[in-house]
Amino acid sequence: MFPNRLQTLLTLLCLMTPSISMGLTAEDWKSVDKQNLEMTEPQVEPGADAEAIFWEVKVEDEISGGDPQVVLNHYIRLKIFNERGRDAHSTIDIPYSSNEKIDRIKGRTINPDGSIVELDKDSVYERDVVKSQDIKVRAKSFAMPAVQPGSIIEYQWREIRRDNLTLYARYDFQRDIPIQKVTYFIKPLRNAGPYGMRSITINGQQRTFEKAPGGYMKTSMEDVPAFREEPYMPPESQVRPWMLLYYTDDKASMTPQQYWGKYAEERFQALKDRFKDDKEVKAKAKELLREVQDDEEKLRVLYEFCQNEIVNVYDDASGLSDEELEDRKRNRKPKDTLKRGMGTSFDITALFLALAQAADFEAYWAEIGDSSFYFFEPNIANAYFLPGWAAAVKLNGEWRFFDPSQAYVPFGMLRWQEEGQMALILNPKDPRFARTPSSPSESSVERSIGDLVLHPDGTLEGEVRLVFTGHRAAWRREQYDDDEEDERIAAIRSRIESRMGGAEISEAKMEGVKDTGSLVYSCKVRIPGYAQVTGKRIFLQPAVFQRNRDPYFSAADRLHSIHFQYSWLEEDAVRIRLPEGYALGPVAPPDPFHSGDNIQYVVNLEKEDERTLIYKRSFRFQGLLFPPESYPQLKALFDALHERDNHTLMLRSQESEASSSGN
Fold first, then answer.
1. For position 24, what pLDDT does the model report?
2. Fewer Cβ within 10 Å of end Cβ, the chain: N or C?
3. What is the model's pLDDT at position 359?
4. What count of Cα atoms within 13 Å lies in the side-chain half-sphere of residue 166?
């Protein structure tokens, strides 16, 4: 369904009467087949420690207190095959977001002898669980009672997605355990007028629906393997099977080319007034560019004006009070944003687009895929997969993309999620897709600088600075721009300690937080026992900022592609003053290596004088997505990086050397 038709459907749905199923209780337990109770081997994945016999979900839209909500009643039954399966799956976590509610949890354990132990409802509690990349989510947790190898455990719960309807809803088919059969029972929206329910299946064959009792439509998927999470993998939407349900009034099927042409035309007509270059905007463009001749520089001036002079009301560091946000007027045209000096992310990007048009650039609105969600390609005919946006400007015959609403993204870059992605340029006469460029590694740099002293007992101390640019800086700024000073210092401590290991930190500070230049962490460090002292020798790892870094990849094999968010460059410059009475032998750096244009690693080691060591390291990585079959080579390269970063030098006591030479 095209976005400008969404309001029509919402209006129709607001007339819905409250659903009679609002008080639904979880359905009764299903009978247990003797065959399942006696099953000793998994059917979906050989060697699995546990397996779900079924997972059933009933989905229905409701109106509760005048507000829409989606209600999902889940029912899952698992077979436990061994002690590992018992340990891994007898404690249940049901994660949920701030806009969701989990209730009506019940469960039971059916043991091999047929005895049944019910879950004590008072044993259900809430806790934080850590998902991928240290992201914490809230979950309802409970431990199933009396679980043993051979047991069947089953549990049910109700999930409520508030302020929501199945207009565009995602439903997963995969869990962290193999499943024999997943079944969804979907009750289509009532009073939806000409809008009909449609679905798209991602990472699986297109699902078909059949009628089921109670007015539901039923679809299922069988023999679903367990989801396997891996480091640096694509977003889950890219690798897990799932289904998108949505509503549309388009009765005739269209090819993707027809769909996108029609979508671009309707979307342009719906938005054209939002970035119209009227006289106020033209006057501002003329004022800003009065002394600027170069086209690239013109765009930079317009970009930095919108980024720095227009307050983004969605920015948590905007400084606007709740009252100011509530009282603000909606900007309907770019001149409103210009006059008020504030606007939404959409408003700010639309103002930039209008200014660019006023400066005689060929410029259009563009809608962009998001690599943190899904790697969109135009063969999927649905605008749901284009959640991002930017202004597309033709410069020297090429399309460039700009989004000044992102406070910390430098000129010439987009958010990392939108780089290297397909973008639909809403030119009503010639709509087309173009791929947004990916920033080179030199645009996102992490420089680690140390001026340090090594003591005879192995203690290392001195001053360190971490300098971040580009994407390396932008996400940190978003995280810390509204934090208090003590929270920022805690972040510095965490970063330094994770890299240097055992560091005692003092005088920490963070500079350049609200900027697009360099973000700088600085502090003094003291690391007792950093170097290993053995008799008259000291063993020193000069790559002090990599001392505590784990290998990038540890698994021997790989299922998913390897996905890096952006390309980057690491540069280390470390000066270490050595202890008196010790001599550094021949200084030989670890061997450099490279892999085409993707990976380059080089280290320089030199003596500034007899007691001062200079260590310089450069690691450049260029690339975003690599197929699973490239994993052995990629892992070997990162293993080589880890090995070389652990390169060790030996210092020998000059007293022991003198003694040896005297003998």
1. 37
2. C
3. 97
4. 27
Predicted local confidence at residue 316, as pLDDT: 80
Structure tokens at 224: 């679903």
Residue 2 confidence (pLDDT): 53
Question: What tokens were used for 250?
Answer: 């388009």
Residue in the structure block whose two tokens are 């002898």: 113
Query: Which pLDDT value is given to residue 499?
Result: 84
CA distances from 606 to 543, 584, 587 (A): 13, 11, 7
Contacts 24+ apart (CB under 8 A), 428-431: 428/264, 428/265, 428/268, 428/269, 431/260, 431/261, 431/264, 431/265, 431/268
Does residue 1 contact residue 246 with C-beta atoms inside 8 Å? yes
For residue 345, give both structure tokens.
Answer: 């992310």
pLDDT for the residue 139: 93
The 3-class SS string of 291-327 reads CCCCHHHHHHHHHHHHHHHCEECCCCCCCCCHHHHHH
Spatial distance between the Cα atoms of 205 and 223, rounded to a whole number of angstroms: 13
Distance, CA of 369 to CA of 386 (rounded, Å): 4
Query: What distance lies between CA 173 and its chain's CA centroid?
Result: 21
206 neighbors 169 (Cβ within 8 angstroms): no
The H or E element that residue 336 is part of is helix 334-340
pLDDT at 25: 42
DSSP 8-state secondary structure symbol assigned to residue 176: S
N-to-C CA span, the chain: 89
What 3-state class would DSSP assign to 215? helix
Whether this model's pTM surpasses 0.70: yes
List, in sequence order, the alpha helices (H) in 147-274: 236-239, 256-271
| Structure tokens given for 178 | 């193999």
Write down the pLDDT at residue 99.
84
Length of the chain: 663
> Low-confidence residues of the chain, pLDDT below 70?
1-27, 64-66, 130-135, 163-166, 192-193, 250-252, 656-663
Side chain identity at 323, as an amino acid letter? E
Q: CA-to-CA distance for 197 and 205, rounded, in angstroms? A: 18
Separation between Cα atoms, residue 168 and residue 183, nearest integer Å: 19
Q: Strand (E) positions, 537-598?
A: 537-540, 562-563, 568-577, 582-584, 593-595
How many whole angstroms separate alpha carbon 265 and alpha carbon 501? Answer: 57
Token representation of residue 99: 């806009």
C-beta separation of 46 from 227 below 8 A? no
Alpha helices, DSSP H only, in 481-540?
485-500
Determine contact, residues 574/463, Cβ cutoff 8 Å. no
User: Rounded distance, CA 464 to CA 449, Å?
Assistant: 6
Of the candidates 381, 567, 377, 400, which has an alpha carbon nearest to the alpha carbon of residue 472?
567
Q: How much is the pLDDT for 23? A: 37
Look at residue 124 and give its three-state secondary structure: coil
Distance, CA of 567 to CA of 315 (rounded, Å): 26
Look at residue 19 in the predicted model and tell me its pLDDT: 44
Which DSSP state fits 374?
B
pLDDT tens for each residue of 73-132 = 999 999 999 999 999 999 999 999 888 899 999 999 999 998 999 999 999 999 988 665
| Whether 520 contacts 511, CB under 8 Å | yes
pLDDT for the residue 500: 86
Placement of tokens 């088919």 in the chain: 173
> Cα(595)–Cα(469) distance, rounded to whole angstroms?
24
The pLDDT of residue 446 is: 97
User: Contact, 364 vs 392, CB < 8 A?
Assistant: yes
| Contact assessment for residue 304 and residue 411, using Cβ atoms and an 8 Å cutoff | yes
